[in-house]
Amino acid sequence: MERTKEQRMLKIPPRKIMTPGPVEVDPRVLRAMSMPILGQFDPAFTQIMNEVMVMLREAFQTKNHWAYPIDGTSRAGLEAVIASLIEPGDRMLVPIYGRFGDLFVEIGERYGAEIHTMSCPWGTVFDPQDVINEIKKVRPKVVALVHGETSTGRMQPLAEIGHACRELDTLLVVDAVATFGGADVRVDDWCLDAVIGGAQKCLSVPSGIAPITYNERIEKVILSRKKVERGIATESDKKVASAMPIRSNYFDLSQLQDYWSERRLNHHTEATSMEYALHEGLHLVLDEGLEQRFARHLLNEKALMAGIEAMGLDLFGDPDCKMPTVTCVSVPVGVNADDVRNVLLDQFGIEIAGSFGSLQGKIWRIGTMGYGCRKDNVLAVLAGLEASLIRCGVTVCRGEALQAAMDVYDEAAD
Ligand SMILES: *Cc1c(COP(=O)(O)O)cnc(C)c1O
Questions:
Q1: Which positions does the record annotate as the modified residue N6-(pyridoxal phosphate)lysine (predicted)?
Q2: Is the pTM above the cut of 0.85?
Q3: Is 97 in the pocket of ligand 1 (CB under 6 A)?
């Protein structure tokens, strides 16, 4: 079929994206992405790489030497860490409280881990002591834990588990994809050994780059698995390499860290424009200030929750472990969740998310992340949701949602 000129045109409808990612990208990030390409060994570019590492350490609140991005979406960061740590037969414990715990299981299995899982009902998190008891029982090499579980909107406290892992000589790998840049992630204080952050969530950078950080405990394992061929390994590399080489080439952290070190050993071609985007995104986070940024996320969350409740809807999940960047709303009985989402998108250009598995059709998930985490967006999603519910035949308290949310903002301004 011949395509008309009209059909060949890229058409992007205006949207407010209020999902748990991808979210609206900060225009300053989009501008950075349109800058000219540099060669990856150009000192001007390696300078940018070094700045990214410095800013990542600050955003991850760590003194770790290694803090750099993996090219690929967030799960590329998860896979790089797991691939580089897990040898066939290694025990890996995954406490699962939502869908992203399953992702750790899936990746660990592919690299031959002996997987042990524990679970708790969706909408809650683990009592840290239960996880610690399980670690003592299983004695895993790696514990893989999600910090902010976007599928259920819950946040797992990590400090106690982190300290216990240090004592028990277990490596703690944390998926902080949906909290990094929007809620406190204290890599050093909480004794997290490897942490993966996200780009298209609270950093408001497009999907396609995954910031990670890890400490010497992780580095020791990685170096022991360094491949010694190819004439690039140093004598000291050869001395420490004892274990089975890392199975993945693209996700081999021992090679990637050489690429990010002063040695600049070639691995893949760095995704130049994504690097610019990450640089600008991190700059914006640190410019705002971590504390101020987290406070902004909490304020918008509070206004959104107040509005939802004033609308007569129920929030889903245990409020004590709610993620500040994702708010889950129970779909009223008899209402088709997707019908309401479709009206919201068609009439208002606002996108919210459904959920997965047992929660599919049962909850809506509203993201307030990064650049999209703003008063105008919160008020718009409340107005749109209320109107869409009425359109779908639901009788709700008309007009009260916005007033409740505006009250929260007014109080904060006083
Ligand atoms: C979004 C998300 C991921 C996956 O990210 P991709 O960029 O889609 O690979 C992993 N973990 C959590 C908690 C997430 O919210």
A1: 201
A2: yes
A3: no
Nearest-CA residue for atom 6 of ligand 1: 74
pLDDT, tens digit, 9 for 90 and up, residues 118-159: 999 999 999 999 999 999 999 999 999 999 999 999 999 999
**By alpha-carbon position, which residue is closest to atom 5 of ligand 1?**
74
Contact 203, 52 (CB under 8 A): no
Cα distances from 176 to residues 78, 192, 312, in angstroms, run 10, 11, 32
Fold of 35-285: Aspartate Aminotransferase; domain 2 (3.40.640)
Interatomic CA distance for residues 152 and 294, integer angstroms: 20
- Give residue-wise pLDDT tens across range 53-91: 999 999 999 999 999 999 999 999 999 999 999 999 999
Task: Give the pLDDT score at 230.
Answer: 55
User: Which class is 289-413 in CATH?
Assistant: alpha beta
- Name the most confidently modeled range: 15-24, 224-233, 262-271: 15-24
Q: What atom of ligand 1 comes closest to residue 76's alpha carbon?
A: 9
**Ligand 1: centre distance to CA 220 (Å):** 27
Distance 98 CA to ligand 1 centre (A): 12
Mutate to test the pocket of ligand 1, among 81, 175, 326 (most ligand atoms within 8 A of CB): 175
Give residue 271 CA to ligand 1 midpoint distance, Å: 19
8 annotated to bind ligand: no
**Strand runs labelled E in 97-227:** 114-119, 142-146, 148-149, 154-155, 171-176, 194-197, 209-214
Q: What is the per-residue pLDDT across 267-317, written as a single tens digit (0 to 9) for each?
A: 888 999 999 999 999 999 999 999 999 999 999 999 999 999 999 999 999
Can you give the residue ranges of every domain in the chain?
Answer: 35-285, 289-413
Is ligand 1 within 6 A of the CB of residue 73? yes
- Give the Å distance between the CA of 401 and the centre of ligand 1: 30
Q: How far is C-alpha 50 from the geometric centre of its chain's CA atoms?
A: 22
Torsion (CA) 15, 285, 158, 149 in degrees, nearest 10? 10
**Probe target for ligand 1 pocket from 79, 96, 100, with the most ligand atoms within 8 Å of CB:** 100
Q: Rounded distance, CA 81 to CA 215, Å? A: 12
